[in-house]
Amino acid sequence: MHSQINELFSHLWQDYLAITPSARKIHSLLNELEFIDTGSQGELINDHIALRTFNIEKINLDKLAAHFLALGYVEKGHYDFAQKKLKAKHFEHPDTTQPKVFISELLVQYMPKPVQDIINKMVEGVNEDTALLKNFLYSGAHWQVTEEEYKTLAEHSEYAAWMSIWGFRANHFTISINHMQQINSVGDMNLKLKQAGFALNDSGGEIKGGPDVLLAQSSTMADKIKVELKDTSLSVPSCFYEFAYRYPMENGELYQGFVAASADKIFESTNTNSIK
Ligand code: NI
C-alpha cells in the first residue's frame, strides 16, 4: 500500500514540477537551508496536496477521491465556498505521515449559461471510464479551448479557466512547516521567500488563518506558463506552492482540518489578474 501511495505522489510531484519552475527552486532553497543548519539532509514533508474538478458525474470529486480511498485514505472534512460556487472535501490516511488530500469541484449548474456550455463541451469529449485510469490524477486536460472560451471562463470563474488549461493534476503541494527544523512559522517562511524574490498571494493578507483557527497558511502566486490553446498560444497561471503551520487542539494533537475562509483566498493564487 505504501509503495503505491509513494508512487502516486511521485507522479503527481514530477507532473507538478514540470509546469511549476518556482516550486523546484523553492524546494531546493528550503532543502539547502535545512541541510546547512542541521548538517544532515532532512526531508521536506508535505502537509497536503490539492486537486480540482467539475461536479459532472464522470469526472466529479468522488471519481478523483476513489483513487485515494483505494489507497486507504478516509473522508474527513467538507467545505463550501458559496461565492466561488465550489465545494470540497479533505481526506486523510491512517498513517499520518502521508499527505492529506484536498479535492474541490466547481458547481457547474450555478455558472452563467455560456460558461456551462463551454465546460459541458470540454467534458463531453472525455470517455466514461477515463476517471478509472491509473494515471487519471495526473493526466492533465482532456480538451482544448479557444482564447475566447478561456477568457469567458476566466471572467466568471478563475477556477474554471484554470481547469480548462491544466485539468487533472496537483494544483499545489504544501510544505509542513511543523516538520521543518529551521523555519518555525508562516511569517518566517514568507520572509525567506520574499528575500529570495518569490511573489506571495496577499489576498486577505499574506498569512491566512492563525492560532485562533488552528491553521496558518501562505502561498506563492502561480507561475505563468506559455500554453497552446486551440487557436493561439497564451501565458497563463499554472500551479503554486503552499506552506502550512498547524496548531495543537485542546487534546494536544495538531489540528488536521482545513479552514474555509483561508482556502477561499488560497484559490486566488491562480488568478490571472493578480499576477505581478
Ligand atoms: Ni492547500
Number of strands: 10
CATH architectural grouping: Roll
Number of helices: 8
Q: Beta-strand level of the residues, as a percent range?
A: 15-25%
Query: How helix-rich are the residues, as a percent range?
Result: 25-40%
Count of domain modules = 1
The major sheet is characterized as:
8 strands, mixed
Structural class by SSE content: alpha+beta
Descriptive overview:
The chain is of the alpha+beta class and 276 residues long. The chain has a single domain, classed as 2,3-Dihydroxybiphenyl 1,2-Dioxygenase, domain 1, CATH 3.10.180.50. It contains 8 helices and 10 strands. The chain has helices at residues 2-19, 21-38, 61-69, 113-124, 147-156, 158-166, 186-195, 260-266; strands at residues 46-54, 74-81, 86-92, 100-106, 172-176, 208-210, 215-219, 224-228, 233-237, 240-246. The strands form 2 sheets. It has an 8-stranded mixed β-sheet, with helices on both faces. The protein has a two-stranded antiparallel ribbon with strand order 8-9. α1 packs across α2. The longest helix is centred in the first third of the chain and has 18 residues, at 2-19. It is globular and about 50 Å long. The model has no long low-confidence stretch (mean pLDDT 94). Bound molecules: nickel (II) ion. Nickel (II) ion binds at residues 48, 50, 102, 172, 174, 242, 266.
